[in-house]
Design brief:
Strand content of chain A: 5-15%
Radius of gyration of chain A: 20 Å
Shape of chain A: elongated
Largest interface: A-B, 73 and 78 residues
Oligomer: homodimer
CATH superfamily of the largest domain in chain A: Winged helix-like DNA-binding domain superfamily/Winged helix DNA-binding domain
Structural class of chain A: alpha+beta
Order of helices and strands of chain A: HHEHHEEEEHEEH
Distance between the termini of chain A: 17 Å
CATH class of the largest domain in chain A: Mainly Alpha
CATH architecture of the largest domain in chain A: Orthogonal Bundle
Number of strands of chain A: 7
Helix content of chain A: 40-55%
DNA sequence: GTCGTTGCAAAGCGTTTGCAACTAT
DNA sequence: ATAGTTGCAAACGCTTTGCAACGAC
């Protein structure tokens, strides 16, 4: 229930030395990609990053971008997210609800309408942002799987 | 621990008559696909549904499944979700945070750590489900865009 | 010079589309 | 008989992979 993770500032220098410590090399392409990654706020969508990098550096092959992203994941600079990969369609009749899916056992559950409403309020209280909860999935661990 | 879902029952019969009302036809393939859609709880991932249908009915072409899903969307049986399409990677150093993205203007915002923590608590209170908020994006409308 | 890295091209996967054959009505 | 539907094959966009050339060290 804690979320006090210290956020070590990750600068190019640190990443590059981690890279070298593992016997990897710094190439102009990697420099550009790392730069783009650090500049990105929030999430990183591979295709978009690939395009962004290519805009700055004429000819970086997409495969290089993909390979570098996965290298950065190995180095611990990036993490892969399965969270938002998912559903494409949902039943039109279903009311706003928040779907909970256990990442380990795959069990699905929903917040009650009341709980969903409170969640909505909580978010709305932040600068009046109105979330679209018409369909919403949150990944995590169910009680049973946490115990294991 | 179940929540009260008041899911207006959408049965095959209703869907089929809507279908016909629009001048569409009922084929064995569509029957199978509709059956699978109704059986699905929660979200529907096209590829998975396609495979599920093919398991039951030897030779349904994937394109038929895709076309039927989009037809069902036209009929209002399904809705398309853009919500969870997105990010693949996120910075490993970033703290748990909840990302808010305005669907209209694209502005990004984050809940404060405190707000994120309360959101986590709220979800945790439901059957002890521990959400993974390490990276999380919620779509909706920012205050400015609601006004427009 | 070594060996990690790159670009290229080909292949993979999910999805879309054109078209001729089929079939529910 | 008349459209709406289907399967097939081709095409598409994103991603991965094998391989030879390249270049950081």
């Amino acid at each position: 229930m804690q979320c006090s993770k210290i956020d070590p500032v990750q600068d190019t220098a640190t990443i590059v030395s981690d890279l070298r410590a593992r016997g990897h090399r710094l190439t102009p392409q990697r420099e550009a990609i790392i730069g783009a990654v650090l500049k990105a706020k929030g999430h990183i969508v591979p295709v978009e990053l690939a395009r962004a990098v290519q805009r700055r550096m004429s000819a970086v092959n997409p495969s290089t971008v993909y390979r570098t992203l996965s290298l950065l994941e190995d180095l611990g600079v990036l993490k892969h997210s399965h969270l938002e990969h998912g559903p494409e369609y949902y039943r039109a009749t279903s009311q706003d609800h928040v779907h909970l899916r256990c990442a380990r056992c795959g069990t699905d559950d929903d917040l009650s309408l009341d709980e969903a409403e409170r969640l909505k309020q909580l978010i709305y209280a932040h600068a009046g942002f109105l979330p679209d909860l018409s369909h919403f999935a949150i990944s995590g661990l169910c009680a049973a799987c946490q115990a294991r």
